[in-house]
Design a protein that fits this description.
single chain; mainly alpha; 2 domains
């Protein structure tokens, strides 16, 4: 049983491998056919380019034929005029105007030579038209062969797609083939578009060919036209010349307007670039001012905190000195009262020697107290001077802070104005550009 299962699995694997190889071969064939189709499409594009070149040459030849036609018409008209003049004036003045007749004959000969040259050029133009016609026929044949090849490729591809769709186990290859089919459909659409374009061009070329043949027939029968037809042709030529001049004037005016619009657009672009640079500079200045403002505010806050701490310390010291001074004043008053009592006791005592020794001791104490009082007064004066200096420094810093705040407010106002002007400029420039584009 196990061997049977292994054998059946091996058979299935071989069958799938053979199917996979078959599908890979089919995919390779499809790729080869797709490459051939791409080569055919490239050849078709080259043929189309050759056809476009032929159409361009045909247009140049048509312009040349029109010029030759005009020259032939002018030569024929001059020839008819000279022949009429020679027929009417030759008989009565044969003996007197012999030189004029010779001149007229010479001019007629020159005009006939020019007419022959124009006819030769016309014949060459006809031959070139025939050559271009043969080229277009060859291009049509190549297009038909490419179309038949594409049809064969499409039928074979559809058959392969039909065979591949039957194998549900190879979805990856099916997706690749679907992609190739989409590419073939796109190539078919492009080929159809090229074929339609070629048909349109061929129809236009056929119409131009008919028009050219009619023009050639008209040129061959132009000698039979009357003077009125010549006058009408001259009027038509004048009208065409006037129309051409008017068209040239309109074209020149359009060119001038376009150049002015281009100059205006360039000026606006330069103005926009300048405005953008100014906005960028203003933004950089604003960012710098904001950073300086933040740094200044932090510095001012630190200085303010330091000054507040110093002022609090000075006030505390001043209060301590005032209390100490008050205490010293109390001691001084006590010492003064004691000294007064001692003096009174010294004057009223009976024992002068003992009183003299007590007075000397009291004087020594009094001098010490006076020196202490002097020192305390000096310390008080120094503390008062330091307090005044701190007050003046605090006042100066307050004024400096006020000045810096005013400068900061002015800077903020200037910055807001610059931002508003930048926004207005950025909003006005696209409107101006759109207005110019709409006007052009």
């Amino acid at each position: 049983m196990h061997n049977d299962l292994e054998q059946s699995g091996e058979n299935d694997r071989r069958r799938l491998e053979s199917q996979l190889q078959l599908l890979e071969a089919q995919v390779q064939d499809s790729r080869t056919q797709l490459t051939e189709e791409q080569d055919n499409a490239e050849e078709l594009s080259k043929t189309w380019e050759a056809l476009v070149g032929a159409e361009t040459s045909k247009k140049h030849l048509e312009d040349r034929i029109e010029d030759l036609t005009r020259q032939v018409q002018g030569s024929e008209e001059k020839l008819a005029v000279y022949e009429r003049r020679s027929g009417t004036l030759g008989v009565p003045h044969s003996g007197q105007d012999m030189s004029k007749e010779q001149q007229l004959e010479a001019e007629v000969a020159e005009l006939r030579a020019e007419l022959k040259i124009a006819k030769v050029d016309l014949q060459a133009a006809r031959e070139q038209c025939q050559q271009f016609e043969s080229i277009s026929q060859a291009a049509e044949a190549a297009l038909e062969s490419l179309q038949s090849t594409h049809e064969q490729y499409r039928t074979t591809t559809e058959a392969q797609f039909t065979r591949l769709e039957a194998c549900s186990e190879n979805k990856a290859f099916q997706e690749k083939l679907e992609a190739a089919q989409r590419g073939a459909i796109q190539a078919t659409a492009q080929l159809n578009e090229l074929q339609k374009t070629f048909e349109i061009e061929r129809t236009a070329w056929t119409n131009d060919k008919k028009t050219l043949e009619e023009t050639i027939i008209d040129l061959s029968t132009s000698e039979k036209h009357s003077e009125s037809d010549r006058t009408s042709r001259e009027q038509e030529v004048r009208l065409q010349e006037e129309r051409a001049k008017a068209a040239e004037e309109r074209y020149s005016n359009e060119l001038v307007a376009h150049a002015e619009s281009r100059k205006a657009i360039e000026a606006l672009n330069a103005q926009l670039a300048t405005s953008q640079v100014a906005v960028h500079d203003s933004q950089v200045a604003a960012d710098t001012a904001t950073a300086k403002l933040a740094a200044s505010e932090r510095s001012w806050n630190k200085q303010k905190e330091t000054l507040d701490a110093e002022v609090a310390e000075v006030r505390r010291r001043h209060q301590a000195l005032a209390e100490h001074n008050k205490l010293l004043h109390g001691h001084l008053e006590d010492v003064s009262s004691q000294a007064a009592r001692i003096k009174q006791a010294a004057t009223s005592s009976d024992a002068p020697a003992g009183g003299g020794e007590g007075a000397i001791g009291d004087d020594a104490k009094l001098s010490e107290l006076r020196s202490l009082v002097g020192y305390l007064r000096k310390d008080k004066n120094i503390s008062e001077l330091q307090l005044d200096l701190c007050k003046q420094e605090n006042l100066r810093l307050s004024k400096q802070v006020e000045h810096l705040m005013e400068t900061l407010n002015e800077t903020r106002a200037t910055l807001s104005e610059e931002r508003e002007r930048a926004v207005q400029t950025a909003a006005s420039v696209p409107e101006a550009v759109s207005y110019i584009v709409m006007s052009t």
